[in-house]
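pls design
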């Protein structure tokens, strides 16, 4: 992570994706606006005005790219940058998007990628493409006449350490869908997606364990000497809480960050969620957790309660509701077994 349905409210026309449970309108049904009037949005707490509807959008990483696909905006895209370690991209509702849009780079987005693609708009996030050391920032792009939008999950909160996150993660997802819907003239589609996602999450929450029955959950992304995990502003916070668990790192006021193993041991999670991506497989991560001496007496390891979700499930993306559903089913089982 470098720093993304039992009771679905069906949309007008839906496509159910094998393996991820998402339900959305098929790609190509949206009718993006061609209007030229200016649109003003609030992005990361700031008012931003766009003089025209972008026509050559460049995105960074899988979650951000799939937000565009979920809104049916493939025709507005010039390409995306994404490592090729993000799992299966062929059995998702947005397969057509991946077939239609150019894969610009199997690394993080660069200014050179954007210019080569003749991009007029960049949708990325801080540490999801935007980074000062690479010279790829909204301000740098603006000087080139290229507009941008910052993924809300990655917004910097104005704290001294530049920690990321300014609102609950699912609110960030809904905010970005609504903003993009307004900018591209697909507001009806955006609102249908938001309503569907909220209903699905609420259905899981209604069945979830309550009070003391809620399992304590630790999100393990990567790292051996120190684990990389999720604080309260990254998607796992609400994926865990809406599913019926308690994120043991809820008090960490950041999105993705590093903690110490001693903190994990002290908080004694009953379930560990492994983020599947990268060169180290989910199976290898599970084996490491099981063999780590410090974790020997941690409840999740003792009872082998280790659950895997994909990277794209755990960064802000249209797959978040499906992740809530799948983790919710697992946590209900854990609560029943205790």
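designed seq:
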């Amino acid at each position: 992570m470098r720093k993304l349905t039992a009771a679905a409210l069906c949309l007008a026309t839906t496509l159910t994706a094998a393996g991820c449970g998402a339900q959305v309108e098929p790609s190509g049904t949206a009718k993006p606006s061609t209007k030229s009037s200016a649109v003003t949005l609030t992005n990361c707490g700031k008012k931003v005005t766009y003089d025209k509807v972008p026509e050559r959008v460049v995105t960074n990483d899988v979650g951000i790219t799939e937000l565009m696909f979920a809104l049916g905006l493939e025709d507005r895209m010039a390409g995306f940058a994404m490592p090729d370690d993000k799992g299966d991209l062929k059995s998702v509702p947005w397969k057509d998007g991946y077939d239609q849009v150019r894969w610009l780079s199997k690394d993080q987005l660069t200014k050179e990628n954007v210019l080569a693609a003749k991009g007029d708009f960049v949708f990325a996030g801080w540490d999801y493409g935007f980074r000062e050391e690479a010279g790829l920032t909204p301000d740098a792009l603006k000087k080139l006449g290229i507009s941008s939008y910052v993924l809300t999950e990655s917004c910097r909160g104005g704290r001294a350490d530049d920690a990321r996150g300014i609102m609950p993660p699912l609110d960030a997802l809904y905010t970005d869908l609504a903003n993009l819907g307004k900018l591209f003239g697909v507001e009806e589609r955006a609102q249908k997606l938001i309503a569907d996602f909220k209903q699905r999450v609420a259905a899981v929450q209604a069945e979830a364990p309550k009070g003391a029955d809620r399992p304590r959950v630790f999100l393990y992304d990567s790292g051996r000497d120190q684990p990389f995990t999720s604080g309260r502003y990254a998607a796992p916070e609400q994926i865990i809480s809406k599913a019926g668990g308690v994120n043991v790192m809820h008090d960490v006021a950041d999105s993705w960050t590093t903690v110490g193993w001693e903190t994990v041991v002290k908080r004694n999670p009953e379930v560990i969620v492994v983020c599947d991506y990268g060169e180290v497989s989910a199976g290898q991560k599970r084996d490491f957790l099981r063999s780590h001496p410090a974790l020997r007496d941690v409840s999740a390891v003792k009872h082998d309660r280790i659950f895997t979700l994909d990277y794209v499930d755990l960064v802000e993306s249209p797959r978040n509701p499906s992740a809530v559903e799948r983790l919710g089913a697992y946590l209900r089982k854990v609560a029943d077994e205790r």
